[in-house]
Amino acid sequence: MKNIVKKYGDGFPAVNDVSIDVADGEFMILVGPSGCGKSTLLRMIVGLEDITSGEMIIGDRQVNDLAPRDRNLAMVFQNYALYPHLSVYENIAFPLRLAGASDKDVDEKVRAAAATLELEEHLERKPGNLSGGQRQRVAMGRAIVRDADAFLFDEPLSNLDAKLRGQMRTEISRLQKRLGITTVYVTHDQTEAMTLGDRVAVLKRGILQQLATPRELYENPGNLFVAGFIGSPPMNFLPATVEGTTAKLPFGDVQLPPHKAERAQGHDLLLAGIRPEHFDDASTREGARGSTFRATVEVVEWLGNETYAYIPYEAPPEITEKLRQLERELDSEAMHTQLVAALSGGSRIREGEEAEIWVDASRVHLFDPETGRNLTVDTERAGTIPELETTA
Amino acid sequence: MAASKETRTRIGTWIGFVIILIWCLLPVVWILSLSFKGPGETAAGSPQFLPKHWTIQNYRDVLGFGTVSTGQEGTHTDFLSALRNSFGIAAVATVLSVIFATLAAYAIARLDFKGKRLVLSLALAIAMFPVVALVGPLFDLWRVLGLFNTWPGLIIPYMSFTLPLAIWTLSAFFREIPWEMEQAAQVDGATSWQAFRKVIVPLAAPGVFTAAILTFFFAWNEFVLAISLTSTTASRTVPAQLSFFVGPDPFNPPYGLLATASVVVTVPIIIIVLLFQRKIVAGLTSGAVKG
Q: In chain A, which ranges are continuous DSSP H helix?
């Protein structure tokens, strides 16, 4: 349905050479830390922001120079942008009235939309008297009354509290599935990205990093940035050197699968990326294949179903520098050079103890610290990684 | 102890209220009382506050109903035409001024154009310009252009003196309105003009009414230009007309009539304020976006 190649730049390229093809009926997520250009991209789709170069195609129509009202898209704004002087009914009816629909038509469609969103009893109220979640639904109502070609959401849940956010997330997902309408959804929240999206586009500083399904992103991140961004707690990055099929980590040696080890040849120092859940308490994983090492656990957080163990380690300065840079890019809290391991809830490891930790070596990713590229990525199952395509 | 302190605070507050009320309302009450006194009483050396003999003769003379006192036969026709002029001129000036100011203020609040600061500071400079300094030049200019003693002759200067204030007030209001409102309207299928008219203007309504009231007051009360740029009752407004009220002789100004006319012209102002006050509800935009 869309085939977008867009460059944007007034000195500063907020969105740089991004190509995304959104299929009809697909739920596409644009995700990235703040300032990565995802909102700009969305606003270019809807026509509130000029496109410097490249082309925007909706259906088979190029819409670069069309005004927002001629694009037939519906958008839900971050702050909802409801019209405070109009009742909920008139807010939802607004697009229809502009289109010159008859009163009967308007009434029918507004009531239908209100029924879908369970807003019937609020129709005569003013937006000022509604709760956050209700306002959110009104904003969505205004979007669904029109037969728009696509829905655009600009961080619609970021103003809601955590509980409501979860509910509305499910609500949006259900609505989209039922209406089967193409949706582009901007968020900085990776939970929303993972749960809602058919496919997710990860952006960094206006550059598309990877475009893939949530599962592909999680299991096959294209580079350090994507790996660090997707997943909570984030992936651990450890300095590693590979000799043969043995990876030397700060804690000990890990046996890598041969095909991964092979890809690492020719690099001295590497970053090994291991997700917290691919560690475990060795005593609860008797006989599982993988390597074990001994380390002193500094802090333990027991959550019931699992236990987070924090294990500090020493890293060479160039690695520390790289990790600092990465954490700036991710816009995240300081990542100390410590390892986070999600152990099973049954683990009896206590703070300050030396423990035997098991690691699933087959799930280890190896990154080139210079380029940040994932050397062990399975390109078959990683969606689109623009970086790799240009060099290929 | 605490209770008595509270009562004292309350009593103090009320004393304050009463003092302020007396301070503000005394002149008004004095004028009201004057308007019900006969000429004999107002001319007396030491008049008392309330009339000895209540009379509505002054109202008869000014508005021209019932029997009119001798010597005041022409007063009411002049006054009524002045009242008409005042209404017409103030209304036209207000409407035009608010329309222009709305458009200008919207452009200033929304668009980034060269010379924006210049326009704003120029507007402020005009607002601070002393009106009296313009009377002479305007008098000459209006005579040449044929605008002397006409409605437009007063409407134009009134507009130019009220526009700056209106523009400043309105652009402040427009700036308060989240830009997303307009963008949402555009995405919903509105043209820029529709977005402006259906979303922005209703939201800026309190600002529009504030600007309208300020403009109307200025035009309604203005005296210097009104007396200088008019010569007959064809365009003379009430404040200017009052100076043409004459008493029985030069040493006995018609205080009663002047007071009555003042009361008559104050009533519409009070009505207008009461009407518009309900429209001037701050915080109309609350609920538009998440606060």
A: 38-46, 88-98, 103-116, 132-144, 162-179, 190-196, 214-219, 224-229, 258-263, 317-330, 386-391
pLDDT at position A331: 67
Pair (B45, B125) in one structural domain: no
Number of domains in chain B: 2
- Inform me whether the C-beta atom of residue A133 falls under 8 Å from chain B C-beta atoms: no
The pLDDT, as a whole number, for residue A68 is 87
Same domain for A178 and A70: yes
| Parent domain of A297 | 224-376
CATH of the domain at A208: 3.40.50.300
Helical (H) or strand (E) element with B182: helix B179-187
In a shared domain, residues A27 and A118? yes
Q: What is the pLDDT of residue A89?
A: 92
Residue B211 lies in a domain: yes
**What residues 112-131 of chain A have any CB closer than 8 A to a CB of chain B?**
126-130
ipTM score of complex: 0.73
* pLDDT digit string, tens, across residues A177-228: 888 888 999 998 888 888 888 999 988 888 888 889 999 888 888 888 888 8
pLDDT tens readout for residues B175-190:
888 888 888 888 888 8
Domain identity same for A245 and A302: yes
Instruction: Closest CB to A126: pick one of B203, B287, B289.
Output: B287
